[in-house]
Sequence to fold (342 residues):
Amino acid sequence: MTSPACSSEPHALRDRPPSGNTSPPVSSAFLWPAIARFVEAEHRFGLRATESGPPAAWIYEFVRFGVKQAWACLFGALMLGLIIATRLWYPHDAIVARYDALVIGALAIQAAMIGFKLETLDEVKVIFIFHLAGTVMELFKTSVGSWIYPEHNLLRIAGVPLYSGFMYAAIGSYLARAWRLFDFRFANHPRLWSIFALSGAIYVNFFSHHYLPDIRLLLLLVTAVLFGRTAVLYRVWRTYRQMPLLLGFVLVAFFIWIAENIGTGMGAWIYPAQAHQWSMVPLAKLEAWLMLMIVSYSLTALINRPSAVVPLNQKGDRRAFLNFLDGAGDEPPDEGDRIVTR
Fold:
C-alpha cells in the first residue's frame, strides 16, 4: 500500500482505508438492530458525498461533526432539558419538589445510559468519581456563599440538592464519549503525572483561595506551558484533523458558560448577584470552567490513556504517523519523550 500524501489543508491528516472497503465501521450504534439500517444508509450517503467532490464532502463532514458533538453531549443536553422543562411546566404544588424531580430524572438518564451501553463501566466509574468531587466542592462553595440553590427539597445534603453532582458528571460524560466518538489522538502531549499534579493543585485552589492567596493565574500559566504545544487529532469521517488542545478546552468551557447562564436563568442555582433579578453570568467565569475542564480531562485520561503520536513538526515522523493511520506501517517509532506518554 502506498503512503498517503499530506493533505493540502494545513489542519487535516488523511486516513484512507484500503481500496474496496466500503462497509460501515463497526460501532456500538451499528450493533443495535433498531438503527443498523440507518448506520448503513448514513455510510453510503457519506461515500456518495465524498465522491461528489470537496464541497459536498465538506458539508457532509460539517453536519456529521455537529451530530457527533450532539451525541457526545447527550447526558448534559438531557439534564439541561430537564432543568428547562421543570421550570416551565412542573407544578409548583407537586408532592415531589422540583429539585427532587431533577434527582429522579438524572438517575433515570444515568441508568438508561448504562443500560443502553452508551457509557462503558470504566467511564461510569470515572464519572462517579467526578460526581463525588463536584458534590464535595458544592458543599463547600454553598457554605461560603459562592452560589445558592433557592428552592426547597428533600433530597439534599446541607444546602446542596443531590442533582447538582450530575451536572459535573455531565461534563465527564461528554469528554469520555467525545474521546471515543472522535477517536482522539495527541501530539506533544504532556506526561500524565504532570496533568494529575496540575489538576490536584486546581482542585485544592477552588477551596484554599477563600483563605489563602489565589494562585489561579499561576495555574493558568502552568496550563498554558503544559498544553501549549499539544495538538488533538480527531476523526469526523475518514480524515484526521487537528487543533490545539488548549483551544478545545476553551471552546468547551465557553459552551459550559452558556449552559450555566441557561441554568441560572431557570433557577437551577443562582449567584448572589442574581438573588433579586437575573443577570448574565460574567464572562470572567470562563476561567473557572477552563480550570474545571483540566480536572475533568485528567480524570478522563485515567481510563482512555492518550494514544501515542509523534510530533507533527517532524516531517519524517509525520509520514510515519500517516502510514500508521493508513495501516501501512506499525506503531509510530519510539521517539522517547517526544511521544505521548501512555
